[in-house]
Write a structure and sequence with these properties.
about 200 residues, Glutaredoxin, four-stranded mixed beta sheet, 4 strands
Protein backbone atom coordinates (compact mmCIF):
# COMPACT_ATOMS: atom_id res chain seq x y z
CA UNK A 1 0.00 0.00 0.00
CA UNK A 2 1.04 3.59 -0.66
CA UNK A 3 -0.14 6.64 1.24
CA UNK A 4 0.00 9.92 -0.67
CA UNK A 5 0.13 12.63 1.99
CA UNK A 6 1.65 15.81 3.34
CA UNK A 7 3.35 16.00 6.76
CA UNK A 8 1.31 19.02 7.93
CA UNK A 9 -2.10 17.67 6.93
CA UNK A 10 -4.08 16.80 10.07
CA UNK A 11 -6.07 14.35 7.96
CA UNK A 12 -2.84 12.59 7.01
CA UNK A 13 -1.67 12.58 10.63
CA UNK A 14 -4.57 10.40 11.75
CA UNK A 15 -3.92 7.93 8.94
CA UNK A 16 -0.22 7.75 9.75
CA UNK A 17 -1.05 7.16 13.42
CA UNK A 18 -3.38 4.24 12.64
CA UNK A 19 -0.84 2.75 10.25
CA UNK A 20 1.74 2.81 13.05
CA UNK A 21 -0.78 1.52 15.61
CA UNK A 22 -1.64 -1.46 13.40
CA UNK A 23 1.91 -2.04 12.17
CA UNK A 24 0.83 -2.15 8.54
CA UNK A 25 3.39 -2.08 5.71
CA UNK A 26 2.52 1.20 3.99
CA UNK A 27 4.90 3.33 1.94
CA UNK A 28 4.55 7.08 2.40
CA UNK A 29 4.71 9.37 -0.65
CA UNK A 30 4.91 13.11 0.11
CA UNK A 31 2.76 15.31 -2.12
CA UNK A 32 4.32 18.76 -2.47
CA UNK A 33 1.18 20.88 -2.34
CA UNK A 34 2.89 24.31 -2.57
CA UNK A 35 4.29 23.11 -5.90
CA UNK A 36 0.84 21.98 -7.01
CA UNK A 37 1.57 18.24 -7.15
CA UNK A 38 -1.93 17.54 -5.79
CA UNK A 39 -3.37 19.12 -8.94
CA UNK A 40 -1.24 17.14 -11.40
CA UNK A 41 -3.04 14.80 -13.84
CA UNK A 42 -1.25 11.84 -12.26
CA UNK A 43 -2.53 12.64 -8.77
CA UNK A 44 -6.03 13.64 -9.91
CA UNK A 45 -6.32 10.20 -11.50
CA UNK A 46 -5.99 8.78 -7.98
CA UNK A 47 -8.12 11.41 -6.23
CA UNK A 48 -10.20 13.74 -8.43
CA UNK A 49 -10.62 16.10 -5.47
CA UNK A 50 -6.90 16.86 -5.48
CA UNK A 51 -6.56 16.35 -1.73
CA UNK A 52 -4.47 14.35 0.68
CA UNK A 53 -4.37 11.77 2.07
CA UNK A 54 -5.06 9.21 -0.63
CA UNK A 55 -4.39 5.50 -0.22
CA UNK A 56 -3.47 3.20 -3.11
CA UNK A 57 -3.60 -0.56 -2.68
CA UNK A 58 -2.81 -2.62 -5.78
CA UNK A 59 -4.61 -0.22 -8.08
CA UNK A 60 -7.47 0.47 -5.66
CA UNK A 61 -7.47 4.15 -4.71
CA UNK A 62 -9.32 5.46 -1.68
CA UNK A 63 -9.73 9.01 -0.42
CA UNK A 64 -11.44 10.67 2.57
CA UNK A 65 -9.29 10.09 5.65
CA UNK A 66 -11.96 8.47 7.83
CA UNK A 67 -12.80 6.00 5.07
CA UNK A 68 -9.09 5.18 4.86
CA UNK A 69 -9.03 4.57 8.62
CA UNK A 70 -11.89 2.07 8.30
CA UNK A 71 -10.15 0.31 5.42
CA UNK A 72 -6.93 -0.01 7.38
CA UNK A 73 -8.70 -1.27 10.51
CA UNK A 74 -10.50 -3.91 8.41
CA UNK A 75 -7.09 -5.40 7.61
CA UNK A 76 -6.61 -6.10 11.32
CA UNK A 77 -10.07 -6.59 12.86
CA UNK A 78 -8.46 -8.18 15.91
CA UNK A 79 -7.16 -4.72 16.87
CA UNK A 80 -10.67 -3.71 17.92
CA UNK A 81 -10.20 -0.20 16.52
CA UNK A 82 -13.50 -0.70 14.71
CA UNK A 83 -15.91 -2.69 16.90
CA UNK A 84 -17.78 -5.59 15.30
CA UNK A 85 -21.00 -5.21 17.31
CA UNK A 86 -23.70 -2.92 15.85
CA UNK A 87 -23.80 -0.41 18.70
CA UNK A 88 -20.03 -0.16 19.01
CA UNK A 89 -19.61 0.26 15.26
CA UNK A 90 -22.34 2.90 15.10
CA UNK A 91 -20.79 4.86 17.96
CA UNK A 92 -17.39 4.95 16.26
CA UNK A 93 -19.02 5.98 12.98
CA UNK A 94 -20.94 8.71 14.82
CA UNK A 95 -17.69 10.30 15.99
CA UNK A 96 -16.00 9.83 12.60
CA UNK A 97 -18.86 11.69 10.95
CA UNK A 98 -18.85 14.38 13.63
CA UNK A 99 -15.16 14.89 13.00
CA UNK A 100 -15.73 15.18 9.24
CA UNK A 101 -18.74 17.50 9.42
CA UNK A 102 -18.11 19.55 12.56
CA UNK A 103 -14.82 19.38 14.47
CA UNK A 104 -12.60 18.99 11.42
CA UNK A 105 -14.02 22.03 9.62
CA UNK A 106 -13.86 24.11 12.81
CA UNK A 107 -10.21 23.36 13.49
CA UNK A 108 -9.37 23.75 9.81
CA UNK A 109 -10.70 27.32 9.93
CA UNK A 110 -8.23 28.07 12.71
CA UNK A 111 -5.38 26.23 10.97
CA UNK A 112 -6.00 28.22 7.78
CA UNK A 113 -5.31 31.46 9.64
CA UNK A 114 -2.32 30.18 11.60
CA UNK A 115 -0.39 27.11 10.40
CA UNK A 116 -1.34 27.34 6.74
CA UNK A 117 -1.26 31.15 6.58
CA UNK A 118 2.36 31.04 7.77
CA UNK A 119 3.24 28.30 5.27
CA UNK A 120 1.68 30.32 2.44
CA UNK A 121 3.31 33.57 3.56
CA UNK A 122 0.10 35.51 4.13
CA UNK A 123 -1.21 37.54 7.05
CA UNK A 124 -3.70 36.04 9.47
CA UNK A 125 -7.28 37.22 9.03
CA UNK A 126 -8.18 38.04 12.64
CA UNK A 127 -11.94 37.99 12.04
CA UNK A 128 -11.86 34.54 10.43
CA UNK A 129 -9.53 33.30 13.17
CA UNK A 130 -11.90 34.53 15.91
CA UNK A 131 -14.90 32.94 14.19
CA UNK A 132 -13.03 29.65 13.88
CA UNK A 133 -11.93 29.72 17.52
CA UNK A 134 -15.53 30.25 18.64
CA UNK A 135 -16.54 27.07 16.79
CA UNK A 136 -13.56 25.15 18.18
CA UNK A 137 -14.50 26.09 21.75
CA UNK A 138 -18.08 25.02 21.05
CA UNK A 139 -16.87 21.64 19.83
CA UNK A 140 -14.41 21.21 22.69
CA UNK A 141 -17.35 21.64 25.08
CA UNK A 142 -19.07 18.71 23.37
CA UNK A 143 -15.94 16.58 23.69
CA UNK A 144 -15.48 17.62 27.32
CA UNK A 145 -18.94 16.38 28.25
CA UNK A 146 -18.56 13.19 26.22
CA UNK A 147 -15.21 12.27 27.79
CA UNK A 148 -16.34 12.69 31.41
CA UNK A 149 -15.59 9.46 33.26
CA UNK A 150 -14.03 7.79 30.19
CA UNK A 151 -10.49 7.18 28.99
CA UNK A 152 -11.54 7.09 25.34
CA UNK A 153 -14.50 8.41 23.36
CA UNK A 154 -16.19 5.05 22.85
CA UNK A 155 -15.11 3.51 26.14
CA UNK A 156 -12.05 1.84 24.68
CA UNK A 157 -9.46 2.88 22.10
CA UNK A 158 -10.96 3.16 18.63
CA UNK A 159 -10.61 4.91 15.29
CA UNK A 160 -12.67 7.75 16.75
CA UNK A 161 -9.86 8.72 19.12
CA UNK A 162 -7.25 8.80 16.36
CA UNK A 163 -9.52 10.77 14.04
CA UNK A 164 -10.44 13.48 16.52
CA UNK A 165 -7.11 13.91 18.29
CA UNK A 166 -5.46 14.68 14.95
CA UNK A 167 -7.40 17.95 14.89
CA UNK A 168 -5.57 19.08 18.02
CA UNK A 169 -2.05 17.89 17.35
CA UNK A 170 -0.94 21.33 16.10
CA UNK A 171 -2.92 23.17 18.80
CA UNK A 172 0.11 25.15 20.06
CA UNK A 173 0.61 26.66 16.61
CA UNK A 174 -3.14 27.21 16.35
CA UNK A 175 -3.36 29.01 19.69
CA UNK A 176 -5.83 26.48 21.11
CA UNK A 177 -5.68 26.19 24.92
CA UNK A 178 -7.20 23.12 26.59
CA UNK A 179 -7.01 24.35 30.20
CA UNK A 180 -10.75 25.00 30.33
CA UNK A 181 -11.41 21.45 29.13
CA UNK A 182 -9.66 19.11 31.62
CA UNK A 183 -11.21 15.87 30.30
CA UNK A 184 -10.15 16.75 26.77
CA UNK A 185 -6.67 17.71 27.97
CA UNK A 186 -6.23 14.38 29.80
CA UNK A 187 -7.53 12.43 26.78
CA UNK A 188 -5.15 14.24 24.41
CA UNK A 189 -2.27 13.46 26.78
CA UNK A 190 -3.23 9.76 26.78
CA UNK A 191 -3.34 9.69 22.99
CA UNK A 192 -0.10 11.61 22.54
CA UNK A 193 1.63 9.22 24.94
CA UNK A 194 1.10 6.48 22.36
CA UNK A 195 4.11 5.84 20.15
CA UNK A 196 1.88 5.57 17.09
CA UNK A 197 0.55 9.09 17.61
CA UNK A 198 3.97 10.54 18.36
CA UNK A 199 5.31 9.03 15.13
CA UNK A 200 2.50 10.67 13.16
CA UNK A 201 3.57 14.21 14.05
CA UNK A 202 5.32 16.26 11.37
CA UNK A 203 8.94 17.34 11.85
CA UNK A 204 8.87 20.60 13.75
Amino acid sequence: MKLYENPFSSAAMKVRAVIHELGLPVTSVTVDMPKGEHKSPEFLAKNPNGKVPTLEDNGFCLYESNAILCYLAAHKPESGLMPADPKGMALVQQWLQWQATTFGPSTTEVMMETVYAKMMGRTKDEAKYAAGMEKVRRDLAVLEKSLAGKEFLCGKLSLADFSLVSCLQLRALMGVDLEAFPHVKAWVARMEARESVRKSLPPM
